[in-house]
Every structure is written in structure tokens, then in C-alpha cells.
């Protein structure tokens, strides 16, 4: 550990706002709104879907336990030892409800309840802290312009027939397997349907983008540590034609098992190699290892009940901008997210929400 550099303290000069960033962000929000409206129109009825991460695979209650930590780690939410109730929502990234044979990146949203302290602007009335994560250490696009280009490619696919989406996914999965044999991973291929069909419960999830951790710059990850979860890492799901095979696997697991993850933080120690504004760069874990700051435990339960669908899936929103000022999102991708999440939440709030199991 003697070769590990100290964490870098945040200064406003670290963030650089492009001249046309506001215009790019506005176009991202408009495109995401169009995707959400297209999927809602295609469904003809039912609730308005999220613009991204529309399909849920499990809704889980859990307990977050924060131990006594050294000063560098003991920041914001993690400054004082304690135990908090939490909610986990497992999802996949598209903005429409697809059969699980169409494989796309997996997401995990964590909402920690009963949080006090100075809050981010716009979340002052909330008492929760959200972490929104995906099962890859870096974002698929380096900046908002590139992300907008990806959205533009996905937009015309939103209303494609299910058969065409399955075919596209199968082709992308084959190409992704070849890429992974070289030790790499293609963000574009996985976004377009090339995510390997692994059990979602064995995955490690990452914030991908940078955040404040008190005065420092950091990223977060949620890592499976109980044997019940690590035994599922890279475990292939059998594609038996069941449209909800990911959800079924989650339900089957939690009806019988307890699960434990560790919430970990990775500090930025070298801005030249760990940029804040380029979200597509994975920070080296050798240069800055993830360090455990809390334990998340979920007891055996039914993760897909009508009550949970109504209370968690249809009524709650998850946003990286819902939380403490000590964990403010950093970088252009996070700045673009700031107006996008409220837009999606407002669309959903304005639509009917019939509860379906």
C-alpha cells in the first residue's frame, strides 16, 4: 500500500464545462423524453416507463451497516457508524420492457433511508441517499455529446419488433464474446444488446462516474461478498424462452437465501489517469484499490410482490442527484443527468399506475 498515492482533494477547476454543454444536455433530455413517450404509446396502456432502466427484476429491502472508519473514508453519510434501512432495485438499461433473451447491461439502484445532513440542491425535502450503478466500471460514453449520439442510435430501435431486437441482441452477444476473449469489453456492443447472459446477482455494480466523498474525488462500487452471491458470479442463465428469466432467478434466490454486499469507495489519486470529465475511463484498481465503507445485507424475502411493485417500482425514483452535498456527482455525464432524472420521474407521476404482479 506504500505505493498508493493519497486521494486528491476536489477543487472547482477540476470540472470543465463545455461551451455547448447546456444545449447538448437539453437535446439528451428531449431524446430521452421521446423514447419514454414512444414506449408508453407502444404499450397502449399501463404506467409510463422510466426513460432508461425501465424493466425491474427485483425489489429488495436491505440493511446498510457503516462501521467505524478512518478519517479519509469517514465522510458524509459514512462519517458516523450506524445502521440504515435500504431499498435495492435491480433492472436492465433500456427504456422499454424487453424479453430477457434481449440481453443488455444490468443496473442496480440503491436508496438508503433516514439520512440527515446538508443536501444537494433540489433534494432538500428528501431524507434518502441514492447510488445508481451499472455492472461495468466505466460509462459507455466519455462525454454528453457521445452519449447523445448513442441515444440517437437507440431511439429508432425503441419501437422495433421484438423479433428484430432478439436478432440484434444475439448478433451483438456473439461479437461481444469475441471482444471479451481479448480481455476487453465493448460499451457500444453491450448497450446495443451484447451483454453476456449472466446471473444478475453475481455482478459487481459501479457508479461509473465520479462523486465527492467529502473533500475527495471518488467512485463507488457494490460488490457481492456472501458465498450465496459469489457462487453466481459469471453463472450463465439458461435461455429457456422465458421472457422474465432474470426476474425469476432473482425471486428463486431470495425466497431461500440471504445476500451480503460490500459498498466500496475508490479514490482518485492521479487526475491524468483517473479523469473526472471522461466517464469512459475505468480508474485503475491497482493504482487506487476499492476500500470497504459499509456492508449491505438482504434477508430472504419475496422480491416481487404487488406491495413492493406499488411502493418501490411505481412510486419511487432513483437519481444520483438525490443525496447529501458531501456526495455531489461530478463531471459532464452527471451534470447531464441532473435534468434528465426529474423529467422521467415527472412523466411517470403524471401517468396511471395499475399494479401488476
What this model shows, in words?
The protein has 357 residues and is an alpha+beta fold. It has a single domain (12-349), classed as Beta Barrel (Catalase HpII,  Chain A, domain 1), CATH 2.40.180.10. Helix content is 29%, strand content 19%. The protein contains 8 helices and 9 strands. Strands 1, 2, 3, 4, 5, 6, 7, 8 and 9 form a 9-stranded antiparallel beta sheet that branches. Helix 1 (21-43) packs parallel to helix 2 (144-154) and helix 1 (21-43) packs parallel to helix 8 (332-349). Residues 161-184 and 186-193 have low confidence and may be disordered.
Briefly summarize what is shown.
The chain is of the alpha+beta class and 357 residues long. The protein has a single domain (12-349), classed as Beta Barrel (Catalase HpII,  Chain A, domain 1), CATH 2.40.180. It contains eight helices and nine strands.
Topology:
Elements: H1 21-43, E1 55-66, E2 82-92, E3 106-113, E4 128-134, H2 144-154, H3 162-181, H4 187-194, E5 205-206, E6 211-213, E7 216-224, H5 227-230, H6 245-254, E8 259-267, E9 291-298, H7 306-313, H8 332-349
Antiparallel strand pairs: 1-2, 1-9, 2-3, 3-4, 5-7, 6-7, 7-8, 8-9
Helix pairs in contact: 1-2, 1-8, 3-4
| Main beta-sheet annotation | 9 strands, antiparallel
Radius of gyration: 19 Å
How much strand?
A: 15-25%
| Net shape | globular
Query: What number is the mean pLDDT?
Result: 84
Architecture per CATH nomenclature, i.e. the level-2 architecture = Beta Barrel
Estimated helix fraction: 25-40%
* Element-by-element helix/strand order: HEEEEHHHEEEHHEEHH
Overall CATH class: Mainly Beta
Q: List segments where confidence is low: pLDDT < 50 over at least 5 consecutive residues.
A: 161-184, 186-193
| Number of DSSP E strands | 9
**Total discrete domains:** 1
